[in-house]
Amino acid sequence: MADTIPVAFSVNGHEVAAQVEPRTLLVTFLREQLNLTGTHVGCDTSQCGACCVHVDGTSVKSCTMLAVQADGCDVTTIEGLGTPEDLHPMQVAFNEHHGLQCGFCTPGMIMSAVNFAKGHPDPTESEIRDWLEGNLCRCTGYHNIVASVGAGARAMAKG
Amino acid sequence: MGLMAKPIRRIEDKRFITGRGLYVDDVKMQGTAVGYALRSPYAHAKILSIDTEAAKAMPGVIGIIVGAELEAEGVGHLGAAFPASMLKNRDGSNRWDGDRALLTVDCVRYVGEPVAFVVAESINAAKDAAEQIFVDYEELPALASIDEALAPGAVQIWPQAPGNIALDWEQGDAAAVAAAFAKAAHISRIELVNNRIVVNSMEPRGAAGKYDKATDSYELYVTSQGSHPISDNIAKRVLRISKDKLRVITPDVGGGFGLKMSTFAEYALVLIASKRFGVPVKWMSERTEAFQSDSHGRDLKSTAEMAFDADGRILGYRVETNANLGAYGLGFGPGIQTAVPMFVIGGVYKVPVVYNHARAVFTNTVPVEAYRGAGRPEAAYVLERLMDQAARELGLGPDELRLRNFIPAGEMPFRSAVGALIDSGDFQRNLHDCMRQADWSGFAGRRAESEKRGLLRGIGLAYYMEKTAGGAGPVEICFTPNGRVEVGVGTSGHGQGHETTFAAIVADKLGVPMELIDLNQSDSLRAPYGGGTGGSRSLWSSGNGILKAADTVIGKGRTVAAAILNVAPEDVAFEEGAFRAQGSNRFLPLLEVAAAARGGTNLPADLSAGMPDGLDSSGTHDENGDTFPNGCHICEVEIDPDTGKVSVVAYNVVDDFGFVLNPLIVAGQVHGGVVQGIGQALLENCLYEPGTAQLQSGSFMDYAMPRADDFPPIKFTYNEILCTTNPLGIKGCGEAGTVGAAPAVMNAVLDALWARGVRHVDMPMTPIRVWETLQAAKG
C-alpha cells in the first residue's frame, strides 16, 4: 500500500483533516471519506462534469484534482449549496423548469451553473449553452437545463 | 383535485437537486469490498490458461473468481429474453444466441468480455492485482462488422450459426409484394446504414451485493429498469435459487435508455463473490469500461424498396436488413430488428402489402440490445428516408407524398398490412400543424438568406409512428398504519418522474394529498411483479392500473362508510376525498375510512371479515389493444460547406400522445429523445477497427456525446387524440422523440446538400463526412 500524506481543508464550512494516498482524487475523497455522495462520477476523462464542486468559489471537476491539491482550500459540494428546507435559487430554478430527469448530472450542472451565474446576472441562451459545454446530460436534451440556468442566474442576481 | 393535465413540478426533484439521491454507488454496506472485472483485450481469442496466483498474493486482495470455477459449481449462464419458441428462423428452425457464461472459460468473443473477477479492499488494490493475472490467449481472426461477418470465408464465431447468422427472420408476404412491384409505375429504392450507438446513461452500470449466511439469502442493489426481470434471470437462470432468496432493489437510477433492462454478468458476480468471500461486494463500471461492456444500440444495414402507382400511391413495401447482434444474443437483442418493430413496418401509410426480411449477424463486438426505441427508430428511419427520396423522384413535395398515403383519420381504427390495429390518429392534422409551426412556407426566404452568408440551408420532415410495449402488471394501493398511501407498481422509473405522475393520479382519483403518497417500485420482494420500465409503457400499465385499483378502493370504502354513517351504500357518494351520506352534511374522509376498515372496530363483523386487508386493493389494466404514439418532426439545418459543420437551427415537433397527463414531463421526454436522435444523426458513432475488432471509440474523448451548444431550443406542441384502448386515453411518450428525430435531421441535411449534387447521405453526418461528401459530389 502506498504511503499516505496529510491534507486539511474546509468542506461545506467544516474543517476536515485526513491522511490520504497521494493518488486519491478529490471526488473519491469527498464520496468515500466524507460520504458526500451528491458529487457523482460519470466518466474517467474529465468530460461529463457530474463531479463539479466549488474550490475557493470556482467550479472545478473534482475528478481532475487530487485531494492533496485541495489542501488549505475552501470546498463546497452540492450538499453545502442549499438544503431541502432552504434551497439555493439555482436549485429552485432546476425544479421549477424541469431541468432534470434522472438527476445524475444535476449536482454538477447546478454547481457549474452557480459559478457561471456569478459573472452572468442576465445570461443569453447562447452564453448558457457555451458554458454548459463541459457538462453532459443524456436525459433532458439540455432544453430545460438552459431554461433553468437562465432563471436561476436571474434569481441569484435579484438576491 | 384536478391534478391531471397540469404541469406539476416533480416531487422527487428535491433529493436530486440537493445531492441526496441514492444511486447504487452511494449505497453503503458495512465492510464492503470492491469488485473489478478483468476484461479481454482481444476481440476473438482462445483462452489457454489463466494464472491468478501472483494476483492473489497482492496486498488488499480478498479473492479472485474465474469462469472454470463457476462452471464446476454449476452456475448458470446469461441468455436472451425471448424463448426459442417465440422467435424462430423463417424456416422454422431455432435461432442461436450463443452461450454466454458470466466469466468466459475457453474463448473470448469481444473486447471487454470479462474473464476474471477480482475482489479487494479497494479499487486501486483490485486494479493493481488484475494487472498481475496472467491470461494466455491464442488470438483468432476477428469480425468487426456485418460486412466482415457475411463475407465468404469469414471465421465462424459459433459453429451452431453457419455464416454467422444468429437469426433469419421474415414477416409479410413476399409473393404478394413481388406481384405489387410487378405492376408498379415507380419503384424507389434506398440503402441505409444505421450507425452503432453507445447508450451512455450518465450513471454507469453498477451493483452491490450481499449474501446473508443466517438466512441463506442474497440482497442486490442494482442499476436497472426493473428489479423483477433481474431477479428472474439471476435467481432462475444463474444462481438457480428460489426467487424469495434474492431481494433485488433498484434505488435511484441515472438513466437507462434500454441499457439497464438487461441482466449483466457483474450483477450475479457480486452475489457469488459475497457468498464466497463473506463480505458485501460492490462493482461500479467506469466510463471506459462501460464503452466495452455495456450493450450497444442500432448498427444495421437496410435496403428498402417502395412500389407506387401512377398517382404516387403505395402498392407495396419491401425491406431487407442485416443487423449486428454482437457476439451473443442477450436480453432483447435478437428481437430488436425483428419482433419489436414488426407492427410499425409501413408506419402511418396505407401499405397494402409488406415483406420484411431481417437477419441478426454475429460479430466480435459487444452484444447489441435495446436503445431508446429499440427497433422502431430504425424502422422509422428507413421508411421516412425512403419516403423523402420517393417524393423527389416522383416530383412531389415531401408533405404531398405523405398526405396521399396517410391512413385517414376517418378510417380509424385501421388494421395495417402487418397486423397492427391502430386505434386512433390524425396524421394529416399533425403534419399541417407542424408545417405551420415550422413556417415551412417561409423556408425559401430563409434559405436565400443563408446563401448570402455562404451557408447551405435544408429542411426535412419525418412522420413517425411507434407501437409501445404491452404487458400490464398489477398495481396495489395500500393504506399504511401511519396514515399514508402506498402505491405499488411493477414499473421502475429512472428519471421519468413516476413518483410525481403516479401520485398525481392517485391524488386526483382518491382526493388524498400528494405529499401523503409514496411509490413502492422495483423491490423484487416488496413491490408488485412487473416487467419494469421500457417501451414507453409505464403510464399505460401503472396509470391505468391505478385507476382500476382506486375504483376498488372507493367501492370498498363506500361499504365501510355506509356502515359507519348508518346509511345504505347506494346513498353514499364519494367526492373530493370523502364519503358523504347524500342529503346530509355527514361525511368521512377516505383516510379515516381506511383506518376504520383496517382496525375493523365499529364495523359489523361480516363486513370486517370480508375485508381482511381493509381498503387495500389491487388492479391490473385490462389489455384491450395497443397504443400508437405518432407525430411530425421538422428539422432545419445550416451547413458550412467550408468546414462541413451542420448546425441545427430550428426543430419543431407536433406529437399525438393521446391524453397528456403532465405536459412538463412529457415535453422533457420529447426534448431528450429528440437530442438522442439528432446525436445519432450528426455526432455519435461507435467504431470497431476493421480486421481486429478493436474498439476505437472507447471514451468520451473519442465518442461525440451531444452537448448543450450543439442544439437550438426544441419547439414541441401536441394534439391530444385520445387513445381508445385504455381508460386514461394515453399513448406513451418516452421513446417518441428518438423515433422521429434521425430521419427528420437526415432529410434536412440531404435537402441542404442536394443543390451541390449530393444524392445520398448516411449517419452520422459529422463535419468530415459532410466535407468529404461535398468534395465527392464535385466529381
What does this structure look like?
The complex is a heterodimer of chains A (159) and B (779). Chain A is 36% helix and 16% strand. Chain A has 6 helices and 5 strands. The mean pLDDT of chain B is 97. Chains A and B meet through helix 2, helix 3, helix 4, helix 5 and helix 6 of A and helix 1 and helix 18 of B.
Helix-strand blueprint:
The complex is a heterodimer of chains A (159) and B (779).
Chain A: E1 5-11, E2 14-20, H1 26-33, E3 52-55, E4 58-61, E5 74-76, H2 78-81, H3 89-96, H4 106-119, H5 125-131, H6 143-158
Parallel strand pairs in A: 1-5
Antiparallel strand pairs in A: 1-2, 3-4, 3-5
Chain B: H1 13-17, E1 33-39, E2 45-51, H2 53-56, E3 61-66, H3 67-72, E4 107-108, E5 114-120, H4 123-130, E6 134-139, H5 146-150, E7 165-172, H6 174-182, E8 186-198, E9 206-212, E10 217-222, H7 227-239, E11 246-249, H8 265-277, E12 281-284, H9 287-293, E13 296-308, E14 314-326, E15 354-362, H10 376-394, H11 398-405, E16 414-415, E17 421-422, H12 427-437, H13 443-452, E18 456-465, E19 474-479, E20 485-489, H14 498-510, E21 517-521, H15 538-565, E22 572-575, E23 578-581, E24 587-589, H16 590-599, H17 605-609, E25 617-620, E26 630-639, E27 646-656, H18 663-682, E28 714-718, H19 736-754, H20 767-778
Parallel strand pairs in B: 1-12, 10-11, 14-15, 20-21, 27-28
Antiparallel strand pairs in B: 1-5, 2-4, 2-6, 3-5, 7-15, 8-13, 9-10, 9-12, 13-14, 16-17, 18-26, 19-20, 19-25, 22-23, 23-24, 26-27
Kindly state the mean pLDDT of chain B as a whole number? 97
Look at the helices and sheets of chain B and give the structural class. Answer: alpha+beta
End-to-end distance of chain B, in Å?
A: 67 Å
Order of helices and strands of chain A: EEHEEEHHHHH
Structural Rg of chain B: 28 Å
Which features characterize this protein?
heterodimer; A: 159 residues; alpha+beta; 5-stranded mixed sheet; 6 helices; globular; B: 779 residues; 7-stranded mixed sheet; 28 strands; 23% strand
